[in-house]
Amino acid sequence: MKFFVDTADIAEIRELADAGLLDGVTTNPSLIMKADRPMKDIVAEICDVVDGPVSAEVTATDYASMVREGKILAEIADNVCIKLPLTLDGLKACKDLTGEGYLVNVTLCFSAVQALLAAKAGATFISPFIGRLDDINLDGMQLIADIRRIYDNYEFETEILAASIRTMNHVREAALIGADVCTVPPATLKGLVKHPLTDKGLDQFLADWKKTGQTIG
Ligand code: E4P
């Protein structure tokens, strides 16, 4: 499973990329707002740091403007992935843009049939939002399982990009189901490395090593 980080914070992206943890990045208009800098500058900088797909979202809502904005964003770098909302116009734009060879991430997916439509429109990635479904007492992880089954039934190549991840358990379950990618906020991604028994074990090993009086080099 690939890991993308869900942020527009370049410092966080650099740190995670340096640690070798990143296969890509997702941004959205809310994350750009938090970063408080011009979107095109942010996307260009991220694309310099990360080789994998960097999702940049259009803000137009009609087909023609989505295609126009998508192409402007894709000019920033070869690894820009145009992010389109799951609407009728978005799907039409997806079909045309992927037909022309652009990478497309269809976002704001909340049902399995929406994901089926995105795959039929040739989406490179589908982004089902787990946390936002859980927030309204629906089962976000069941959606990932349903999409996995449907895509496997028909051998769709669209990658399942599990989004709106809130917890370590979301990552674990999405991986067990076979999501292709998880996009994870930086703090949650860094938290995946943590286990209290790892810290405790390391403390013990270091304390015992000190007692030996040895050094390795
Ligand atoms: C996905 O690409 C979205 O940017 C993101 O995962 C949304 O997550 P949120 O529900 O935590 O805002």
Bound compounds:
erythose-4-phosphate
* C-alpha-based Rg, rounded: 19 Å
Q: From N to C, what is the helix and strand string? A: EHEHHEHEHEHEHHEHEHH
- CATH architecture call: Alpha-Beta Barrel
Mean pLDDT: 98
Task: Name the poorly predicted regions.
Answer: none
Shape: globular
CATH class: Alpha Beta
Under CATH, the topology can be stated as TIM Barrel
Tell me the number of helical segments per DSSP (H or I, 4 or more residues long).
11
Structural class: alpha/beta
- For the termini, the CA-CA separation is 37 Å
Q: How would a crystallographer describe the biggest sheet?
A: 8 strands, parallel, barrel
Give the neighbour order of strands across the main sheet: 1-2-3-4-5-6-7-8
Provide the CATH superfamily. Answer: Aldolase class I
Percent helix: 40-55%
Strand content: 15-25%
What's the topology here?
Blueprint: E1 2-6, H1 10-18, E2 24-26, H2 29-35, H3 39-49, E3 54-57, H4 63-74, E4 80-85, H5 88-99, E5 103-109, H6 112-120, E6 125-128, H7 130-135, H8 140-154, E7 159-162, H9 168-177, E8 181-184, H10 186-191, H11 196-212
Parallel strand pairs: 1-2, 1-8, 2-3, 3-4, 4-5, 5-6, 6-7, 7-8
The structure holds erythose-4-phosphate (E4P).
Residues 6, 26, 28, 107, 127, 129, 131-132, 163-164, 183 line the site of erythose-4-phosphate.
